[in-house]
Specification:
There is one protein chain. The protein is α/β, with parallel strands linked by helices. It has helices at residues 15-25, 45-48, 63-67, 84-93, 117-120, 135-144, 176-179, 192-201, 232-243, 291-305, and strands at residues 6-10, 31-36, 58-59, 73-76, 98-101, 113-114, 129-131, 156-161, 183-185, 206-212, 218-225, 249-251, 267-275, 280-287. Helix 1 (15-25) packs across helix 10. The chain is globular. The termini are far apart. The structure holds NADPH dihydro-nicotinamide-adenine-dinucleotide phosphate and N-acetyl-L-glutamyl 5-phosphate. NADPH dihydro-nicotinamide-adenine-dinucleotide phosphate (NDP) binds next to helix 1 and helix 10. Residues 80, 103-104, 134-135, 161, 165-166, 173, 192, 209, 211 line the site of N-acetyl-L-glutamyl 5-phosphate. It is an enzyme of class 1 (oxidoreductase).
């Protein structure tokens, strides 16, 4: 009998889908049940993912067909607004299936577990409906959480993302020509990740996102107004203490760079700076939007759902690497 959990992936052609295929194919316990894409239906997976040795082909599954595949888990890596029919079909036909939704569709739904393990894993046990956090939202929450109890006002977050964050549907925000030598501001108030962080932390924030001409990686610079004065050592100790046992969060003395986080699975937080007599702190976080911002975090959530070590199948690096 095959006891390896089988994972079905809907939205398998996308940037995040591709990362998930590579992670699941290399995972020591999971195997791929199906990969669904309308555009690539019928094509061999190995045409697009040469590292994948099997005979799997892309299929185009609607919600009922996906729910009927007998997968142990289904990951939805679809654009926002498309998850509901898949969830309804699974609820009706295969309710025990673990669902991980990469979109923003269930991040405000109390019936779903919000899977940002470093902050929420205490609630993970038994969760079968798992909402994967947004990419910027992951970086912002990890950068703010250690100081959440010391805030005097909403933190301001200035974010810059590579254009893979905007998916594959053509737009100004993923057009390398328009982004060349450019920085494009958008959604300067009310971005879904602004609301998501406020909802999850119980602490409003102000978020100003931008997109740049590189492909992958995000930097978020967070300005934190504090209710009392902090010293430099105390500030850094807060972050180090909070993340000491977290293999996917690295606290640095210097400011992290986007170029050093691309294609890596962890978040870096550093560049700690104090002003206004210790009552204003600045911290900088970087994250690969496609990995810890999406696919690697989904794998953490799948590992937890199936009782495996949380980082199984996620390449870890030595902290001095
Ligand atoms: N990119 C990122 O950095 C991050 C993305 N996310 C979220 O993850 C999800 C996937 O993102 P990403 O991979 O970038 O998106 P892409 O645009 O790269 O891929 C979207 C996928 O969905 C499929 N798709 C698109 N429209 C439809 C439709 N109407 N019906 C069925 N399938 C459709 C596409 O394949 P096909 O057209 O062949 O069916 C493709 O596989 C999104 O919800 C996104 O918000 C979350 C964190 C970070
Ligand atoms: C550059 C760019 O456009 N980035 C996307 C990132 C958000 C995303 O991927 O969507 P989720 O909320 O589903 O995570 C954006 O700002 O909408």
């Amino acid at each position: 009998m095959n006891t390896r959990p089988r994972i079905g992936l809907v939205g398998a052609r996308g940037h995040v889908g591709g990362e998930l295929i590579r992670l699941i194919a290399a995972h020591p316990q999971f195997e791929l049940a199906f990969v669904s894409s309308r555009e690539r239906a019928g094509r061999a997976l190995r045409e697009f993912e040469p590292a994948f040795a099997g005979d799997l082909r892309y299929v185009n599954l609607d919600a009922a067909a996906a729910a009927g595949q007998g997968a142990d888990a289904i990951v939805l890596a679809l654009p926002n607004g498309l998850a509901a029919p898949f969830v309804a079909a699974l609820d009706a036909m295969a309710p025990q299936t673990v669902v991980v939704d990469l979109s923003a569709d269930y991040r405000f739904d109390a019936a779903w577990y919000y899977g940002l393990p470093e902050l929420t894993r205490a609630r993970a046990a038994g969760a079968r409906r798992i909402s994967n956090p947004g990419c910027y939202a992951t970086a912002m929450q990890l950068a703010i959480a250690p100081l959440c109890d010391a805030l005097a006002a909403p933190p301001q977050c200035f974010g810059v993302s590579g254009y893979s964050g905007a998916g594959t549907t053509p737009s100004d925000r993923n057009d390398p020509e328009k982004l060349r030598d450019n920085l494009m501001p958008y959604s300067l108030s009310g971005h879904v990740h602004e609301r998501e962080v406020g909802h999850q932390l119980g602490q409003p924030i102000q978020f100003m996102p931008h997109v740049a001409g590189w492909f992958r990686g995000i930097m978020v610079t967070v300005n934190l107004h504090l209710a009392r004065a902090f010293g430099a050592d105390e500030l850094r100790a807060r972050y180090e203490g909070h993340y000491r046992d977290e293999p996917l969060v690295r606290v640095l003395a210097s400011a992290p760079w986007v170029s050093r986080i691309a294609a890596r699975h962890h978040v870096e937080i550093g560049g700690f700076t104090l002003a206004d007599g210790g009552r204003r702190a600045v911290a900088v976080a970087t994250i690969d939007n496609l990995l810890k911002g999406a696919a690697s975090q989904a794998l953490q959530n799948l590992n937890l759902a199936f009782g495996f070590a949380e980082t199984l199948g996620i390449p870890l690096e030595r902290s001095d690497a």
